[in-house]
Queue: 2 jobs
Job 1
Amino acid sequence: MKITTKLWIGLGVLIALSPLGLLLPDHFKAGDAWGEWGTDGVKELVGYIPQGLEKLSGLWSAPIPDYAFKGWEGKGLGSLSFAYIFSAIVGISFIVLIVFLLGKVLAKKDDY
Amino acid sequence: MHIPDGYLGPATCGVFYAVMLPIWTIASKIVKKTLKARQVPMLAIGAAFSFVIMMFNVPIPGGSTGHAVGGVLVAILLGPWAACIAITVALVIQALLFGDGGITAIGANCFNMAFVLPFVGYYVYKAISYNAPADSNRRVLAAGVAGYIGINLAALFAGIEFGLQPLLHHTASGQALYCPYGLKVAVIAMAGEHLLIFGWVEAIVTALVIKYLLKTSPELLEEGRG
């Protein structure tokens, strides 16, 4: 088997395992990454929401915020894991598409 | 390490976009000269790997979370310029589709994770693995050390960027406008948790994959440097 085939399979395994990145922090009661709190989190930590932070934090409304579907906030870990895997597939599909398009533009074709 | 919108003031965001612009331009030029068409799938795999490995949040029990970036591995395999492009693609997708990292902070996040991390990692790997035979364990060790140092310097930069904000932007009464934590807290938090925990995750991931590739496909580690 070609090494790239093996690596694609490896990526598939990582996608399938990705919910660990959701379940382990939940199990060990770990919160946001440092400096990645929402406005509520900042208020809890320092007692106020910095004005500029409040203004800019809502600047972009991502289609799949935090690798979860909008409106699924209260759902269980099973649903969230599904959304996480779905996000990994969507993200990787976009990335692979973009890199292949970039490759068409950038890479040399004359050395096969 | 994905700085969200609102944590960096406009000046910092602008500076890092301005710094990244020539880096992205040079990266495209160099990759255009050195990347072979048959390496494109590896570049795609590298970008995808970096994206998915960042989804594996590692918890500090009762505290915060963090993750590996996988970028040092991509730099070892494809060179730091190609890695810069691969990680940039991953970071832009994370910001646009998933709100992971801010739109205004793409310049800063790319500087930390798509420039500092792969370049530092690449040259540390080169220095330690210099002249090592293909089957040498020194290469595996070099990959681990490179991953550890690369991600830690990236985290240090992120800490400095966070920590400068209260100095740069505050109200007359002294309230911060953006990131509320100053240099001391931000640098200790970012550097500390990466030195103690997440740096080791990057080190282990990088070393294990290089070990595997040295065994199965050593030619991957001999070609395509740029």
Job 2
Amino acid sequence: MDKKIKNTIILVLTVFVIVAIQQGILFTVDKGIGTGNVQVIAGSNISGNEQWTFGLVPHLETMSKIDAATQGFKIWASPGDYSGDSIMGITAAIAAVMWIVWMGVFLGFPGNIQFKKERILGLIGIAFLILILNLVFLRSIADATTAGSVVRNTAGHLSLALNNTGILFAILLHRLGVGVKDPDQPMMPAFGASKCDKANKNFYRKFNGLLTILLATAVIEIICQFAGLAVPEVAVDASVWLIWGVIFLGHFGTFPSDWKLGMRPKGIALMLILTILTLVGFYVMQVASGEAIGSGLLETRLANAGLSQNAGVSLMLSCWLVFWTVAVGAAGFCNPGECKPVESKP
Amino acid sequence: MTETDQRITVLENKLHSMRDILSVVTIIAFTVFLGIPIVGSVIGIGTYSPFFGAAWNTMLLYALLVANTIGYLWSEL
């Protein structure tokens, strides 16, 4: 087997283990609150008496939901707000994207791993930024919150905010030169890099392709909304499709004529197959765990919450497509193959 | 230059100016299209809206979109 493919399999399996540990810890925190209970900010029932360490870390107390409501406490989190157990398939997907970016792209695990000082420091810096930025936002949104839990108002589910910030800072710091392997390669759309790709000849070709894919993914989102496959948070649901569109272009080329080159058709097929398999896998886990872990697919909990029971399908598809595009790219399936001479206009 | 040539040149110029107009319109349309959820999420901070979702998270996702898009456009792929 190709060494690159073998390395990618190791990478993906490692990522899955880390994601399972991360989500498992958050899930335990969720379960620790207990059904019917909520976490409240200590002292928040009296104006001006809220207890925060350094103004950023709240003092939390657990009490029953009814007590919290009658005494007028500000709710910090309800069960499920940390890991998002009802849509675990989606929160796990975002976590998987973050860890594959950190491990595979940033650290070069396992084939190209180089424990350069700036990469390790970069990751520590990113982790610090994630922590501080999210705490600042949680604090500011805690002050603005009048109804609902603070964590939910801030991020939907805490793991989503943590992992999204993780991806964003990894990309931004990489652009700024932290832990860069090749200065010509951007972070996420990195693996398709090839000097002979037609796309590099014309900026407007890329730009037009970008607008086209944004429109196409927006249409996908609209279809999903009307088919009852998407959560009602349109902006959130749409953004992941748009992001996937851009990442897809970065990996497989701008227009369908680029997608046919070299290993790419195989890569696109693999990406689709693995995405479907992941969805099936999460559905099996949902059934096996008696819906303790939700996949967003034929889920009674979503129906009970007043949504379509398939409301998670759109996000499941888009998030796992992002993950598998990056993974397939790491395995070298975005290689356009032999350089052909580019036709030039007379 | 024959008359046909001249006409073609005029047509070409018109086509180019129309292309330019179209590209400006497209850019503005897309800015609005992507700006709505971003502005919405800034306004929606602290409240959970079905249109924007959790505000901070929505902004993060659009920041990711922008970072990826700029990374793609700027790359020498």
